[in-house]
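debug: dumping io for the single-chain case to check the tokenizer round-trip. Nothing else runs in this session.
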Amino acid sequence: MSDRNKQLDELLASAAPEIQEHWESCRESGLTGHTKEAADKVDGQILAFFSHLKALPDPAEEAAVLDALRALYEALDAINEEADGGLLETDERELLVPLFIEAAEICGVDPEDHDGEPGGEFRTF
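debug: decoded output
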């Protein structure tokens, strides 16, 4: 396993408990749109994103990493629309976007070259 892929695995493993805790807290609070099914769809897209990044050549081309971010954000936007826009809001953005930025950075993308958020032009939540 490459060092990059090991870093991606460690990043995801360290973020997973906080993400799961967040979804559980939202459901316990009765927040609209925060169903287990919706959270599972988001989690599935996060896993797919990390798998996509790990499958890229090492080093990865920046365009390929940005394409993976675009695909992730399009999928998350669709899931959010299914939840009438109430699933991915400020709290979720603050939880998830730094994870995605760090993953892109591990793959060689410099956030400063993208106003601090690679792929930000694709994100609507």
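debug: round-trip ok. The CA atoms of residues 65 and 104 lie 6 Å apart.
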